[in-house]
Structures are given as structure tokens and as C-alpha cells.
Amino acid sequence: MTTRHLYVHVPFCGRRCTYCDFSIAVRRTVPVEAYLESLGREIALTGAHPDETLYLGGGTPSRLGGEGIAALARLLGLERELAEFTLEANPEDVTAPSVSAWARAGVNRVSIGAQSFDDRVLAWMHRTHDAARVREAVRTARAGGIPNLSLDLIFALPVSLRRDWRRDLDAAIALEPDHVSLYGLTVEPGTPLFRQVGRGEAVPADDARYEQEYLLAHERLAAAGYGFYEVSNAARPGREAVHNRAYWLLEPYLGLGPSAHSFDGVSRWWNEPAWARWQELLEQGKSPVAGHEILNDHQRRLEQMYLALRTSTGLAMEEPCPPKLAREVPRWIGAGWAAESGRRVRLTPQGWLRLDSLVASI
Question: Tens digits of per-residue pLDDT, 248-293?
Fold first, then answer.
């Protein structure tokens, strides 16, 4: 199955971060060969072959090392450079030998999980790097020929940490990444953070602080030449994430690996989330798909509206316009949450902060 957009989930991490509820497998030593063997079986079942973008997410895909990523690329039969081949990486994995191997394998974009430039905060997050390692990772990736770099940052941390968000933003901007992804901290059930909150050891940031930090990010990044093209993502011109845009445009994509999701335009399906179960099914020659759903026309339209409003492109006001939308949009504009031009409605940063409730109203 040739697909324009392919996602591969690599579940392994050295430890679980304080806030993480992703499908991961904590391993001191990564079973690279066993993982690639199972992935090869899934590739054989699906005939997966990316034509435009490949995104390796996790987990921590960079823990496969330089040769592990190269072997993964060979499994997929990559014969030419893709428009975008993204690898998520922890800073400590970005070494000169690994970067050289990644670049030879076709990786042309690396997303580095910086999260903060405050060592106290990184320790609280249970990250495996410090701020100096983030800076070194950026230098190493550039020196190794990776042309496109993205940094991840988390905002709206508990006030008790006394994190200086402006300082973190300025530290990220000083590294001149091509792209920045921002994630507001959420308290997910089952995470270490959830237990800390339950014991009264941490108090989540309130809505006012969340809004203040989100709007400050817009201000500082815009001043540095970045444009927010999606609610959580800002980029220099021409450096928007091609793969992620496919999700927001509801384009078909295929997912491989534990917990990976796929979409063909009508139906969506997802794999078993646990690494051991995913591996077991493939060893038995069975599909690792755990469930699926078929979207009806109404569901697809709702998703299209929601995803369009997430982006700077906005939502087209088609004729005939749904009555609820026609009634709500003037209210949004009056409140400063949206603007309309050329028969398109685009949310402002204040509107993006209220995205879920605005979509619920229509």
C-alpha cells in the first residue's frame, strides 16, 4: 500500500515523564532487533511504503540509534528522498554518529523534545537531559546536515515550580529553530502528575495563567519571525510540518507500530497499544489492529470544521451556511475570538484558547 503519509510509532523510553500518558515501553536497553523484526512483519502485512512523508514518533524513536533508524528506512524500501522525513529525538540521543546515520537514511527533519531550558523544571518533568544538552543537540544536528529542526516546549506548569516562561521562549528562539511546537500541560489519569495532584503535591496552572503564557508565546514568536499556522505550532515561512498538516486536512495516512492510528478518508483504525501484545500478534501472523470506526457524512463534516478552525487557513463559510454557524460567527467576531475575510473564518489566539467550546456551540 503506497501512502502519501506514513506514521511509525516507536514505543521505547528510558523513563516515563511526569505528565506522559502515551503508549510507551520503558526499557533500559532497547530491543532494536526485536522491534524491527515485528515492524517488518507489519510492513509485509500492509505493504506500507511512504510516498511523501514519513514521521517516526513515540515514545522516543531516537533511542533506536543511528543504525536502527537506517535499518527501519531499509525495511520501508525508501528509494528516494521524501519531501519530509521527521524523527522525534531526545536531546541526549543527538550525537554526531547518530545524526550522520540518520541523514544518510533520509531523515531531513528532527523534532527535539526540549520542553524547558530550566534544569529544575526538567528534573521535575523526569526528563533525561538538561538545558545544556538541548543546545548541544541543536548544534550537532545542524553540523550533521539536518536542514529542518523543530523544538517542543511545554507551558502552563504548576506555579510552585517558579518557571520563567519568557526566559524559556527566548532561549528557544535564540537557537533559531525552523519550527516550534507548544503544548499546554494537562493532567491525565494514570500519570505521575495525576497522582501528585491527587496528593496535593502539585497544583495545575489556572486558566488565567494558561492564557497568559499562550498569548506571550504568540507575542514572542511573532516578533522573532514565526507564524502560528495551527493552534499549537509555529514556523518560519516554508517550514510548516507537511506530515502534520495532512492530519488537519483529513488526508489519508497509515500508521504502523503499537497504538498507531490510520485513516483512509472514510474509516479510521488503530493498533494494539501495548508493545508486547502488538509484537505477539505479529509473531502469530495476525493483524495488530485493535479497533476501527467508519465516519458518516455528518461526523466527517464535524471533523472538517473542527480541524479547519485549528489552523490559520480557517473555515470556509460555504453556502448554504449551517444555521448555528451563521448565528455564532458574528458573536465570535464581536468577542475578538475570530475574524472573517474572503468568506473564511479564522480564529484569533484568544479564539484558539476557546476552540473546544466554540466548536461545541456549533
Answer: 999 999 999 999 999 999 999 999 999 999 999 999 999 999 999 9
244: amino acid identity, one letter: N
d(C-alpha 61, C-alpha 18), whole Å? 19
Q: Within a domain: residue 253?
A: no
For residues 106 and 343, what is the distance between their CA atoms, to the nearest angstrom?
41
Among candidate residues 158, 57, 160, 65, the one with its CA nearest the CA of residue 109: 57
On whether both 244 and 323 belong to a single domain, the answer is: no
292 vs 316: CA distance, rounded Å: 29
Give the separation between CA 220 and CA 150, rounded to whole angstroms: 16
Contact 259, 9 (CB under 8 A): yes
Full domain range(s) for residue 73: 2-248
pLDDT tens by residue, 126-180 = 999 999 999 999 999 999 999 999 999 999 999 999 999 999 999 999 999 999 9
CA distance linking residue 271 with residue 287, whole number of Å = 9
| Residue 21 near residue 67 (C-beta atoms within 8 A) | no
